[in-house]
């Protein structure tokens, strides 16, 4: 059964970019070693797009793309902080920087290594693509009922 979700809030350093995100209190985050994530120390958790709400700062966001151009690295033009982005692994989802979440709602973070320097193999082995897929409540309910009978 999927863990219950809580509402985390967070944003960039200057406060222009603010968001809320529905995710478990115990997060699984990814520490990627690709050239750009390594420079930014980008450790992030991935959620379906519908779990993420940008509250403010859309006009402050600047976008950086490189390599395949799929990942949309969006950062605050005032303070330079990337509080979230749209990763190559989950272009349909949002990756949220764990260090940009406000204190008080995160109970634990399990950090997994993502070998972004060998991206294709890491992507296939990690199961990260599933992190931006919303669980299907109807299907889960059916399987629980089936298990109970
Ligand atoms: Zn900022």
Count all strands and give the number. 10
Question: What is the CATH third-level topology name?
Answer: Metal Binding Protein, Guanine Nucleotide Exchange Factor, Chain A
Widest sheet: strand order?
8-9-4-3-10
Oligomeric status:
single chain
State the domain count.
1
Largest sheet: 5 strands, mixed
**SSE-based structural type:** alpha+beta
Summarize the topology.
Layout: E1 5-11, E2 18-24, E3 26-32, H1 35-40, E4 43-48, E5 52-56, E6 61-64, E7 73-76, E8 84-85, E9 93-97, E10 108-114, H2 119-126, H3 137-148
Parallel strand pairs: 3-10
Antiparallel strand pairs: 1-2, 2-5, 3-4, 4-9, 6-7, 8-9
Bound molecules: zinc ion.
Molecular structure report:
- There is one protein chain.
- The protein is of the alpha+beta class and 149 residues long.
- The protein contains three helices and ten strands, in the order βββαβββββββαα.
- The strands form three sheets. Strands 8-9-4-3-10 form a five-stranded mixed sheet.
- It has a single domain (5-148), classed as Beta Complex (Metal Binding Protein, Guanine Nucleotide Exchange Factor, Chain A), CATH 2.170.150.70.
- The protein binds zinc ion (ZN).
Summary tags:
single chain, alpha+beta, Metal Binding Protein, Guanine Nucleotide Exchange Factor, Chain A, 3 helices
Briefly characterize the structure.
This protein has 149 residues and is of the alpha+beta class. It has 3 helices and 10 strands.
